[in-house]
Amino acid sequence: MALSGLQIFKLLPKTNCKDCGFPTCMAFAMQLASGKAELSQCPHVTAEAAAELGEAAAPPVRKVIIGAGDMAVVLGEETVLYRHEKRFEHPPGIAILVDDTVDDAEFQVRLDTFKAQEFERVGQMLRAKLFAIESADAGRLAARVKKASDETGAGIIVMSDDAEALKAAAGPIKDKKPLLYAATAATFDAVSAVAKELGVPFVIKAATLEELSELGDKCVAGDFKEVVLDPMSANLQDAIRDQTYIRRAAIKKKFRALGFPTIAFPCRMTDEPLLKTVFAGVFVTKYAGLIVLDTLDPAQVMPLLILAQNIYTDPQRPMQMDQGIYPINEPGPDSPLLITTNFSLTYFTLAGEVEASKVPTWLLVMDTEGQSVLTSWAAGKFVADAIAVFVKKSGVDEKISHKKIVIPGYVAQISGELEEELGDWEVVVGVREAADVPRYLRGLGA
Ligand code: SF4
Questions:
Q1: How far is the centre of ligand 1, averaged over its atoms, from the C-alpha of 19 (Å)?
Q2: Average pLDDT in the 211-239 region?
Q3: Mean pLDDT of all residues in 70-84
Q4: Where do the H-state alpha helices sit in 171-259?
Q5: For position 445, what pLDDT does the model report?
Q6: Which of 18, 25, 31, 46 is the pocket-test mutation for ligand 1 (most atoms within 8 Å of CB)?
Q7: In 80-235, where does DSSP find H-type helix?
Q8: % of the chain at pLDDT higher than 70
Q9: Three-class SS of residue 422?
Q10: Whether the Cβ atoms of residue 323 and residue 381 lie closer than 8 Å to each other
Q11: Structural domains of the chain, with CATH
């Protein structure tokens, strides 16, 4: 049973040392009780207290790992309903369905496409990491599961109504943590026994939330921690209701029976490809841990991965680049020098345009805690005196033979003050929009 903040407080060291990031042990205890902090944030808690805190320290949505190595997908550990309250922890895993309608030739195409399909965005590589393999034929299921795992390294969702077929297919790859799909009220004992024997997670599914809660209760009573919920929602309206209810019950009520990540099948809710993607996008935001698609069409996969990347970025910590000097198109001592902030989106947009210009250029990237040019200027971080200190310490003057720096057009107002701060440098106001950079750079050499 969940402990109150006061009960947790009694087990903490009560030194108010602040090492956990909270001003007092009581403040930390209250956050822990509401699932917004983790026990590991207090380095001083005793082993006895940690053991006693047990369930209170567990996240309201259990952690589940599917797959291994670089392809491992972590689900759960969510602590909030809304991203702005703290952050969402783990982006949903995207799984590609292969069922009995897919012949062997098409199966091979999907494996090959899967292996090759990666998307780079703001310095991160994005991809689907899972296959969901379903078959009514136990032999075919086992063969395809093994082949997909061996050839792609993907995490596998093994799908069958037959517990013995699940065991035969998942057993040979159990070290790669496949997910068994799925236990129903009728098959719970058999499927959960296979999961226990193999040491792998499994899905429980039921047509109503009441029945799903009953199965969840059985998981809690049986100490099954790595469980995924399928509410079997028939349409998008039901799905939003079910996913929201499950997340609210887990986080607001600490209802352990529904305190597990979920799986959703937008590919089975409509025949219209575009709608499948739209539905899947809804599940990215509310609140699926796994989303199953029936295609590797980049037009459908890539938008979801980018949406997940955006939603699951910590709103308090924008994606950022390291501060430093970035050479683009092999610049030399005479090449122009541009300066910008270390907000990833700013950097990659600008760097992409500079690269496209084919003009050798030095790009000086200043740490503004990941804020964009205007935001960081307004926050007093991308201002003349701070920029001048950075430019002088950056070492860029050892790479160039001139003393001319181009600042973004959006901060034209700091050019005079920056020139004063820099002394013998010439400060040039560049363009506002990245799209105008190629024309601007080519014009510099004219
Ligand atoms: Fe208290 Fe631990 Fe936080 Fe220190 S780190 S204030 S002991 S909860």
A1: 6
A2: 96
A3: 93
A4: 188-198, 209-221, 236-251
A5: 65
A6: 25
A7: 104-116, 138-152, 163-170, 188-198, 209-221
A8: 98
A9: helix
A10: no
A11: 20-57 (no CATH), 64-311 (3.20.20.20), 324-444 (3.40.50.11600)
